[in-house]
Each structure stands twice: as C-alpha cells, then as structure tokens.
Amino acid sequence: MLTEVRNFKILDVTINYPKLDKPVNPFGAEQYELQIATADETKVQELEENYIKFRRKDGKLVKTMQKDKNGNEIGEMFTAGLKRKAHKANGESNGKVRVVNSDLSEMEEVTTIGNGSKANVIVFQYPYDTAGRKGVASSLTAIQITDLVVFSPIGGVDFEAVGSIEPTLAEIQGSPSDLF
C-alpha cells in the first residue's frame, strides 16, 4: 500500500460528466468531479494497481455503453469516478481543478468540455487511516484536454408564454365544491 503522498498521472482517457466550473453537492459535501473511461482492460489493471477504483458489480469489472454527443453508441468502456473536495477539513477552500489545453494554456471555459473529450489527468494520492478504515484516497488535481468535444446543449422542451395566470373574478366565484 502507498505510504507517501504523491501526484499520479493518468494518460489518454475519455472524460464524461465533468463538473469543473463550480462544485456540486451530491452527498452533502461540495466537490468537483468527473468520470474517466477506457476500453483498455490492461490500462484498467494498471490504474487499479495505482489505487484508481473502477466500477465493479459482484467483484467483476463492469463495462458501460458510451454515447457520443448525438446519443450514438460508440462502444463499451470501463469507468471510474474522480473528485476533488471543494473545502479542506479545516474549512478553507481547496481550490478548483486546474484545466489546461494540449498546449498547456489555461482553459477559460471549462463548461465547454463535453462527454467523450480525451484527456490526461493528475490526481493527488495520500494514504489514510481513519475510524478503523485504511486505504489510499485520490483527489482530482489537474486535467489536460488533448481532444476537446465541445459541449453544446441540445434544444429541448420548454414553456411558451401564456396570458395572465391570475384568476379572474368569474373563476373565483362559487363554492369550493365547484372546483372538483
């Protein structure tokens, strides 16, 4: 097991569901997060040997169907979630995840990173021994986007403008039983 803190680089993975602009709060603690994916089982084994936990069911690795931005199936991949807490244990800000382009320039609009983008990822890893549990934690530190798939929201269903929703005098006269 890892005994010293370290930065670990994960090369050439697909990223999905990046939440990097502002922290999300899925389980009571604000965090930045994304999913990494690969179809290469050898890479999964290497990453698991380096404490990156991939999705499993009944002890076996699970492959999930990945789709492109148009919803077309592009193949099955193994997936792992990575996160970075927004705040340190003492309450101070932990800072955002650093995101750079392939030329190492800072990426200004991280909300444009779409599912299926290719990237290199750095995680900060440290051993822990808390409340009888031991292990190695990984904290998402930096991302280098090597092949950007631009996120563009697909037009969806929305409301249309309607007239006033205030009840008229004629509508509110009568007894409550008239409503049912």
Write a structural description:
There is one protein chain. This protein is mainly β and 180 residues long. The protein is globular and about 75 Å long. Strand 5 and strand 6 form a beta hairpin. The longest helix is centred in the N-terminal third of the chain and has 9 residues. It has two helices and nine strands. The protein has a seven-stranded mixed beta sheet, covered by helices on one side. A two-stranded antiparallel ribbon has the order 3-4.
What's the structural blueprint in terms of helices and strands?
Elements (H helix, E strand, L loop, with lengths): L5 E19 L6 E8 L2 H9 L6 E2 L2 E2 L1 E5 L5 E13 L12 E3 L16 E14 L2 E15 L21 H4 L8
Parallel strand pairs: 7-9
Antiparallel strand pairs: 1-2, 1-8, 2-6, 3-4, 5-6, 8-9
The percent range for helix content is: under 10%
N-end to C-end Cα span: 67 Å
Give, in spatial order, the strands making up the sheet with the most strands.
5-6-2-1-8-9-7
Question: What's the overall average pLDDT, rounded?
Answer: 89
So what's the overall shape? Answer: globular
Order of helices and strands: EEHEEEEEEEH
Biggest sheet overview? 7 strands, mixed
Rounded Rg: 23 Å
What class do helices, strands and sheet pairing give? mainly beta
Count every beta strand, where a strand is a DSSP E run of 2 or more residues. Answer: 9
Number of helices: 2
Strand content: over 45%
**Uncertain regions: pLDDT < 50 for 5+ in a row?**
none
